[in-house]
């Protein structure tokens, strides 16, 4: 487990999962806040897991709301057994379902609001895998990508480069074929070389932002490297 050091010397000390890992005794408030933020970010893999377990959309939504209310309301006691938030979340979700029977009760007005697009995303992503656990890992990886692309797009908008971003975003994951650099350059009234350089920089920034997203779910640089490999593997298994 990460040691409590000066954040200037250990940047992982201030990440959300590190805050959870470092909490003890009366210092639970910051940990609960950190868990609340992480849970808010990762509705999607929770919902996918529940759907992959066979629950229909409305029941999965109701279960997810109750699970998150329980998760953020409990004292943090089991986090030390988990190197990263992803494994912690899955373990807590399994335990939650093991304690539940039948169809969840109707909402009582105190549960978190679930995003309205989760079922649409679930159907669109075709994220189902041989096991609910594998579906969860795939959905977690997709959520990291989703948040990274949203941040990348917002940066482009704020810096006045949104048209360039919109043209180049499809090429973050593949190389342009012959003539595509020239086509994009013409559409943007730029030289092809400018487009080549812009794509290189966009890919680098994408990698930085993706690492930043994952850093909030681990407690060390070693765990970050392992998490990057694990999520790339989960995405790789989605390819036909």
Summed up, what is this model?
The protein is mostly helical and 240 residues long.
Count of discrete structural domains: 1
Mean pLDDT: 83
How much is the radius of gyration in Å?
20 Å
Q: What order do the helices and strands follow?
A: HHHHHHHHHHH
Counted beta strands: 0
Percent in helix: 55-70%
- Count up the helices: 11
Low-confidence stretches: 1-9
**Whole-Å distance between the termini?**
38 Å
Question: Globular, elongated, flat, extended or rod-shaped: what is the shape?
Answer: globular
Strand fraction? under 5%
Query: Structural class, please?
Result: mainly alpha
Largest sheet: none
What do you see in this structure?
- With 240 residues, the protein is mainly alpha-helical.
- The protein has one domain (12-236).
- The chain has 11 helices and no strands.
- The protein has helices at 16-22, 29-41, 43-52, 57-73, 85-98, 118-125, 132-158, 162-168, 180-188, 192-215, 221-236.
- Helix 3 (43-52) crosses helix 6.
């Amino acid at each position: 487990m990460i040691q409590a050091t000066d954040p200037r010397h250990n940047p992982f000390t201030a990440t959300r999962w590190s805050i959870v890992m470092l909490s003890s005794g009366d210092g639970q408030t910051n940990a609960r806040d950190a868990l609340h933020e992480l849970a808010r970010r990762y509705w999607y893999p929770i919902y996918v897991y529940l759907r992959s377990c066979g629950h229909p959309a409305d029941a999965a939504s109701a279960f997810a709301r109750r699970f998150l209310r329980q998760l953020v309301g409990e004292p943090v006691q089991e986090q030390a057994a988990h190197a990263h938030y992803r494994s912690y979340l899955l373990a807590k979700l399994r335990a939650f379902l093991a304690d539940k029977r039948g169809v969840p009760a109707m909402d009582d007005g105190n549960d978190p609001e679930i995003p309205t697009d989760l079922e649409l995303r679930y159907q669109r992503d075709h994220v189902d895998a041989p096991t609910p656990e594998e579906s969860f890992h795939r959905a977690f990886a997709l959520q990291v990508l989703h948040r990274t692309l949203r941040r990348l797009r917002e940066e482009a908008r704020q810096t006045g480069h949104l048209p360039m971003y919109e043209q180049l975003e499809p090429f973050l994951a593949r190389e342009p074929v012959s003539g595509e650099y020239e086509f994009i350059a013409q559409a943007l009234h730029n030289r092809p070389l400018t487009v080549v350089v812009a794509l290189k920089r966009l890919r680098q920034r994408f990698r930085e932002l993706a690492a930043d997203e994952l850093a909030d779910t681990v407690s060390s640089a070693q765990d970050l490297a392992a998490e990057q490999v694990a999520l790339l593997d989960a995405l790789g298994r989605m390819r036909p």
